[in-house]
Design a protein that fits this description.
globular; mainly alpha
Length: 63
Amino acid sequence: MSQLKIEHAVTLICDQGCVRIRVLIQTLETGSAIQETTELNEAERQAVLAELKSIMAIYDLRK
């Protein structure tokens, strides 16, 4: 598993804003790939999903 690939995908996604992140989380939860994760394997996509959920949980606490 490539941590660098995971971090890159998370950065690309986070640059799109919170509303888009939530949509992409839902898409990843269905098992579908998104453009930012097409070059990742399943374990890496799951790691991206977990990281995005963690980031949004922290963001939601700040509201």
